[in-house]
Design goal:
By secondary structure, the protein is mainly alpha-helical. The chain has helices at about 5-10, 15-50, 55-70, 75-85, 90-95, 100, 105-130, 135-140, 145-175, 190-200, 205-230.
Length: about 240
Protein backbone atom coordinates (compact mmCIF):
# COMPACT_ATOMS: atom_id res chain seq x y z
CA UNK A 1 0.00 0.00 0.00
CA UNK A 2 1.42 3.36 -1.05
CA UNK A 3 1.69 6.38 1.23
CA UNK A 4 -1.08 8.12 -0.70
CA UNK A 5 -3.45 5.18 -0.29
CA UNK A 6 -2.59 4.97 3.41
CA UNK A 7 -3.30 8.67 3.84
CA UNK A 8 -6.67 8.35 2.08
CA UNK A 9 -7.52 5.49 4.42
CA UNK A 10 -7.45 7.91 7.34
CA UNK A 11 -8.15 11.20 5.59
CA UNK A 12 -10.50 11.54 2.66
CA UNK A 13 -10.42 15.15 1.35
CA UNK A 14 -13.86 14.83 -0.19
CA UNK A 15 -15.32 13.51 3.05
CA UNK A 16 -13.61 16.29 4.99
CA UNK A 17 -15.03 18.88 2.61
CA UNK A 18 -18.54 17.54 3.19
CA UNK A 19 -18.44 17.13 6.97
CA UNK A 20 -15.37 18.95 8.31
CA UNK A 21 -17.14 22.27 8.91
CA UNK A 22 -20.15 20.56 10.49
CA UNK A 23 -17.91 18.64 12.87
CA UNK A 24 -16.27 21.89 13.92
CA UNK A 25 -19.73 23.33 14.57
CA UNK A 26 -20.45 20.26 16.71
CA UNK A 27 -17.18 20.85 18.55
CA UNK A 28 -18.35 24.36 19.44
CA UNK A 29 -21.65 22.95 20.73
CA UNK A 30 -19.72 20.49 22.91
CA UNK A 31 -17.48 23.26 24.25
CA UNK A 32 -20.49 25.46 25.01
CA UNK A 33 -22.36 22.66 26.79
CA UNK A 34 -19.35 21.74 28.93
CA UNK A 35 -18.33 25.32 29.72
CA UNK A 36 -21.78 26.45 30.85
CA UNK A 37 -22.64 23.32 32.84
CA UNK A 38 -19.22 23.24 34.52
CA UNK A 39 -19.47 26.92 35.53
CA UNK A 40 -22.99 26.52 36.91
CA UNK A 41 -21.92 23.28 38.60
CA UNK A 42 -19.05 25.10 40.29
CA UNK A 43 -21.43 27.59 41.87
CA UNK A 44 -23.88 24.90 42.93
CA UNK A 45 -21.03 22.69 44.10
CA UNK A 46 -19.73 25.43 46.38
CA UNK A 47 -23.16 25.77 47.97
CA UNK A 48 -23.37 21.99 48.40
CA UNK A 49 -19.89 21.89 49.93
CA UNK A 50 -20.86 24.56 52.44
CA UNK A 51 -24.00 22.56 53.19
CA UNK A 52 -21.91 19.47 53.86
CA UNK A 53 -19.78 21.50 56.29
CA UNK A 54 -22.78 23.13 57.96
CA UNK A 55 -23.58 22.60 61.62
CA UNK A 56 -27.23 22.06 60.66
CA UNK A 57 -27.79 18.30 60.59
CA UNK A 58 -30.79 18.52 58.23
CA UNK A 59 -28.81 20.59 55.73
CA UNK A 60 -25.88 18.20 55.98
CA UNK A 61 -28.17 15.25 55.39
CA UNK A 62 -29.95 16.83 52.41
CA UNK A 63 -26.72 17.80 50.66
CA UNK A 64 -25.18 14.40 51.41
CA UNK A 65 -28.21 12.67 49.86
CA UNK A 66 -27.97 14.85 46.77
CA UNK A 67 -24.28 14.10 46.32
CA UNK A 68 -24.80 10.38 46.97
CA UNK A 69 -27.52 10.15 44.31
CA UNK A 70 -25.79 12.08 41.55
CA UNK A 71 -22.41 10.45 42.13
CA UNK A 72 -23.86 6.99 42.55
CA UNK A 73 -26.14 6.83 39.50
CA UNK A 74 -25.09 6.92 35.82
CA UNK A 75 -25.12 10.27 34.07
CA UNK A 76 -26.96 8.67 31.16
CA UNK A 77 -29.78 7.58 33.47
CA UNK A 78 -29.98 11.10 34.91
CA UNK A 79 -30.17 12.61 31.43
CA UNK A 80 -32.93 10.22 30.36
CA UNK A 81 -34.78 10.81 33.61
CA UNK A 82 -34.84 14.55 32.99
CA UNK A 83 -35.55 14.53 29.26
CA UNK A 84 -37.82 11.52 28.86
CA UNK A 85 -39.05 11.17 32.44
CA UNK A 86 -39.84 14.71 33.59
CA UNK A 87 -40.51 15.68 29.98
CA UNK A 88 -43.48 13.30 29.96
CA UNK A 89 -45.38 15.54 32.42
CA UNK A 90 -46.31 17.97 29.68
CA UNK A 91 -49.53 19.31 31.21
CA UNK A 92 -47.84 20.00 34.56
CA UNK A 93 -45.00 21.95 32.98
CA UNK A 94 -47.42 23.85 30.77
CA UNK A 95 -49.42 24.88 33.83
CA UNK A 96 -46.20 26.01 35.53
CA UNK A 97 -44.96 27.76 32.41
CA UNK A 98 -41.88 25.51 32.19
CA UNK A 99 -42.74 23.36 29.21
CA UNK A 100 -40.41 25.43 27.02
CA UNK A 101 -37.56 24.13 29.20
CA UNK A 102 -38.37 20.43 29.53
CA UNK A 103 -39.32 19.96 25.88
CA UNK A 104 -35.89 21.17 24.75
CA UNK A 105 -33.10 18.59 24.66
CA UNK A 106 -30.45 21.30 25.02
CA UNK A 107 -31.83 22.65 28.31
CA UNK A 108 -32.38 19.17 29.72
CA UNK A 109 -28.82 18.17 28.83
CA UNK A 110 -27.48 21.35 30.37
CA UNK A 111 -29.45 20.70 33.56
CA UNK A 112 -28.36 17.07 33.77
CA UNK A 113 -24.69 17.91 33.31
CA UNK A 114 -24.88 20.77 35.80
CA UNK A 115 -26.54 18.69 38.51
CA UNK A 116 -24.13 15.82 37.96
CA UNK A 117 -20.89 17.78 37.97
CA UNK A 118 -22.05 19.86 40.95
CA UNK A 119 -22.05 16.70 43.08
CA UNK A 120 -18.47 15.86 42.14
CA UNK A 121 -17.26 19.43 42.47
CA UNK A 122 -18.92 19.70 45.87
CA UNK A 123 -16.77 16.90 47.24
CA UNK A 124 -13.66 18.42 45.68
CA UNK A 125 -14.41 21.80 47.22
CA UNK A 126 -15.34 20.29 50.57
CA UNK A 127 -12.01 18.52 50.73
CA UNK A 128 -10.06 21.63 49.73
CA UNK A 129 -11.89 23.79 52.28
CA UNK A 130 -11.15 21.30 55.03
CA UNK A 131 -7.51 21.13 53.93
CA UNK A 132 -6.91 24.80 54.79
CA UNK A 133 -5.02 24.90 58.07
CA UNK A 134 -7.06 25.74 61.15
CA UNK A 135 -4.49 28.38 61.99
CA UNK A 136 -5.75 30.46 59.07
CA UNK A 137 -9.17 30.73 60.73
CA UNK A 138 -7.57 31.59 64.05
CA UNK A 139 -5.32 34.24 62.49
CA UNK A 140 -8.30 35.86 60.75
CA UNK A 141 -10.26 35.89 64.01
CA UNK A 142 -7.30 37.46 65.82
CA UNK A 143 -7.32 40.25 63.23
CA UNK A 144 -10.99 40.86 63.88
CA UNK A 145 -12.15 39.81 60.42
CA UNK A 146 -15.79 38.86 60.01
CA UNK A 147 -16.74 35.30 59.05
CA UNK A 148 -17.77 36.49 55.59
CA UNK A 149 -14.48 38.31 54.99
CA UNK A 150 -12.49 35.39 56.39
CA UNK A 151 -14.17 32.96 54.03
CA UNK A 152 -13.98 35.00 50.83
CA UNK A 153 -10.61 36.68 51.41
CA UNK A 154 -8.66 34.05 53.32
CA UNK A 155 -10.10 30.54 53.18
CA UNK A 156 -11.67 30.31 49.73
CA UNK A 157 -8.61 31.57 47.77
CA UNK A 158 -6.33 29.07 49.52
CA UNK A 159 -8.78 26.22 49.01
CA UNK A 160 -9.13 26.99 45.30
CA UNK A 161 -5.38 26.64 44.90
CA UNK A 162 -5.71 23.09 46.24
CA UNK A 163 -8.79 22.38 44.14
CA UNK A 164 -7.48 23.48 40.73
CA UNK A 165 -6.01 20.07 39.84
CA UNK A 166 -9.02 17.94 40.84
CA UNK A 167 -11.44 20.43 39.25
CA UNK A 168 -9.41 20.23 36.06
CA UNK A 169 -9.72 16.44 36.08
CA UNK A 170 -13.48 16.80 36.51
CA UNK A 171 -13.62 19.20 33.56
CA UNK A 172 -11.75 16.71 31.38
CA UNK A 173 -14.12 13.93 32.44
CA UNK A 174 -17.04 16.17 31.52
CA UNK A 175 -15.66 16.77 28.04
CA UNK A 176 -15.50 13.03 27.42
CA UNK A 177 -18.88 12.35 29.04
CA UNK A 178 -20.55 15.07 26.96
CA UNK A 179 -20.72 12.60 24.06
CA UNK A 180 -23.84 11.05 25.60
CA UNK A 181 -25.76 14.27 24.90
CA UNK A 182 -26.01 13.04 21.31
CA UNK A 183 -28.42 10.34 22.54
CA UNK A 184 -31.11 12.98 23.10
CA UNK A 185 -30.68 14.56 19.64
CA UNK A 186 -28.09 17.19 20.58
CA UNK A 187 -25.90 17.83 17.54
CA UNK A 188 -22.66 18.17 19.40
CA UNK A 189 -19.43 16.71 18.09
CA UNK A 190 -20.54 13.12 18.63
CA UNK A 191 -24.03 13.85 17.34
CA UNK A 192 -22.68 15.24 14.06
CA UNK A 193 -20.25 12.33 13.79
CA UNK A 194 -23.03 9.77 14.22
CA UNK A 195 -25.16 11.55 11.63
CA UNK A 196 -22.30 11.67 9.14
CA UNK A 197 -21.43 8.02 9.74
CA UNK A 198 -25.04 6.94 9.18
CA UNK A 199 -24.78 8.44 5.67
CA UNK A 200 -21.27 7.34 4.72
CA UNK A 201 -20.38 4.34 6.93
CA UNK A 202 -16.80 5.62 6.93
CA UNK A 203 -14.98 4.82 10.17
CA UNK A 204 -12.52 7.71 9.79
CA UNK A 205 -15.25 10.10 10.94
CA UNK A 206 -15.01 8.58 14.41
CA UNK A 207 -11.23 8.83 14.23
CA UNK A 208 -11.54 12.56 13.51
CA UNK A 209 -14.00 12.94 16.40
CA UNK A 210 -11.60 11.15 18.77
CA UNK A 211 -8.77 13.46 17.69
CA UNK A 212 -10.93 16.54 18.26
CA UNK A 213 -11.86 15.34 21.76
CA UNK A 214 -8.17 14.69 22.38
CA UNK A 215 -7.42 18.23 21.19
CA UNK A 216 -9.88 19.73 23.68
CA UNK A 217 -8.45 17.67 26.52
CA UNK A 218 -4.89 18.66 25.63
CA UNK A 219 -5.79 22.36 25.52
CA UNK A 220 -7.46 22.08 28.94
CA UNK A 221 -4.50 20.15 30.35
CA UNK A 222 -2.00 22.75 29.21
CA UNK A 223 -4.17 25.62 30.42
CA UNK A 224 -4.56 24.03 33.85
CA UNK A 225 -0.84 23.47 34.09
CA UNK A 226 -0.22 27.17 33.43
CA UNK A 227 -2.87 28.16 35.99
CA UNK A 228 -1.37 25.88 38.65
CA UNK A 229 2.12 27.24 37.97
CA UNK A 230 0.88 30.82 38.17
CA UNK A 231 -1.15 30.31 41.35
CA UNK A 232 1.57 28.30 43.05
CA UNK A 233 4.61 30.35 42.05
CA UNK A 234 4.74 32.01 45.50
CA UNK A 235 5.11 28.56 47.06
CA UNK A 236 8.38 27.90 45.26
CA UNK A 237 11.46 28.12 47.41
Amino acid sequence: MSATELLQLFFDPELFERYGARMLDGLLVTAKLVAISFSLGLLLGLLLALGRLSRNSMLRGATAAYIYFFRGSPLLAQLFMLYYGLGSFRELWQDLGLWWFFRDAWYCSLLAFTLNTAAYQAEILRGSLQAVARGQHEAAAALGLSRRTTFFKVILPQSMLLAVGPLGNELILMVKASAIASLVTIYDLMGITKLAFSRTFDFQLYLWAALLYLLIVEVIRRLLRRIEMRLGRHLDT
